[in-house]
Specification:
Elements lengths: L11 H8 L21 E6 L3 H9 L6 E9 L5 E3 L3 H9 L3 E2 L2 E4 L4 H8 L2 H18 L3 E5 L8 H17 L3 E7 L13 H6 L4 H7 L2 E5 L13 H12 L7 E6 L2 E5 L4 E6 L1 H10 L6 E3 L4 E8 L2 E7 L2 H13 L4 E5 L15
Parallel strand pairs: 1-2, 1-15, 2-4, 2-5, 5-6, 6-7, 7-8, 8-9, 9-15
Antiparallel strand pairs: 2-3, 10-11, 10-14, 12-13, 13-14
């Protein structure tokens, strides 16, 4: 689950143009979204901000797919949002494929439920996505619908199947962000996680329709330490590979940190490289430790009479996850998100 707030401008001109759009077919290449045996696809997510922009500009050679979270589908099927033209131009100049995310409003149940209730609204939405992609030269779209009810699983799968057909007719690639599962047993998840978050994703159906899925293999709900400890990650991956072809699975890697108060046992902060570097600067004697069991790194320090532990992804932990990608011949990695990462992780993403 991504911890974020979305702010998107309306695009009136686009909404008017969508009304007259025809889904005229262009040849779709089945190779468009395929990773080769010697190269896995490195997708990086992007949320607007100076740190994110600086990271994107600095690491273009390590990015195959640029996935900015800047668009949203509204309840009536219209599309809201836009991408900074400078970022688009930079991506094209550096031959980076652009695949924006499109969300269900601000991860709003009301937005997607109203959309799925009407075939006409779905048509409007799909037409808007095709039009925007062809207008700006996007490689395709990633559908990132979250906070959905389990009872809407079939409606979501049907929408993705219809979108995939239209995208492929127009030479576009479709991916879907999917929340992690370890089973299809609701009682295996805490509280209402299955009913309100996890159960809406039919891996078999989505894996069949989409060109690839980005597995949000982070935020282990049972963890009181590492974000995505390796034993849990392997359970998630095992379930996924039983339902989705390996060649269609992009392994999600979080590059933010979790900070725990060791005295209260509570998660007190989520942050990125800037915050972590401040800890090292203000506590120069602390030393990072790599935990081989979880394949994540941590640092412990004291401040204000409290003791804190920060778990985060390092070059070594990212290398361990890339090793899974290569061993299982997965499609690639999906990294959340630019601007939060340590610069050292890029050494682990080289071919």
């Amino acid at each position: 689950m991504r911890l974020q707030i979305i702010s998107i401008k309306n695009s009136v001109a686009l909404l008017l143009a969508v009304c007259s759009l025809s889904l005229s077919a262009l040849p779709y290449s089945a190779l468009a979204a395929t990773s080769t045996a010697t190269h896995y696809q490195r997708l990086f997510y992007y949320r607007d901000g100076p740190l994110a922009k600086a990271s994107f500009l600095a690491h273009a050679s390590s990015i195959d797919v640029f996935a900015p979270q800047v668009y949203s589908l509204l309840a009536d099927g219209t599309l809201s949002g836009n991408l900074d033209p400078d970022l688009l131009a930079f991506a094209k100049k550096n031959k980076i494929k652009v695949m924006p995310l499109v969300t269900n409003g601000n991860f709003s149940p009301a937005q997607y439920q109203a959309l799925f209730a009407s075939t006409a609204k779905e048509d409007t939405a799909i037409s808007a996505l095709v039009y925007q992609a062809k207008t700006y030269g996007y490689w395709g779209w990633q559908v990132d619908f979250e906070q959905m009810q389990a009872e809407d699983k079939d409606a979501f799968s049907a929408f993705i199947a219809r979108a995939a057909a239209a995208f492929h007719q127009n030479g576009l690639v479709l991916s879907v962000a999917i929340v992690s599962k370890v089973s299809d047993t609701p009682s295996d998840y805490k509280g209402m996680l299955w009913e309100n978050l996890i159960g809406a994703y039919d891996y078999d159906a989505l894996g069949k329709s989409a060109d690839f899925v980005s597995l949000m293999s982070y935020d282990d709900p049972e963890s009181s330490g590492p974000i995505a400890p390796m034993p849990w990650l392997k359970r998630v991956l095992a379930y996924t590979l039983a339902h989705v072809p390996a060649s269609k699975v992009s392994l999600g890697i979080p590059v933010y940190y979790w900070q725990w108060n060791d005295m209260t046992k509570k998660l007190v902060q989520i942050g990125g490289n800037e915050g972590l570097q401040n800890v090292f600067k203000n506590h120069p004697t602390v030393q990072p430790v790599y935990d081989s069991a979880s394949a994540e790194e941590y640092v412990i320090y004291a401040s204000g009479g409290q003791v804190y532990t920060i778990w985060y992804e390092s070059s070594q932990s990212v290398a361990a996850r890339v090793a899974l990608v290569k061993a299982d011949k997965l499609y690639g990695v999906s990294i959340w998100t630019l601007g939060l990462e340590l610069s050292s992780i890029y050494t682990s993403l080289k071919e």
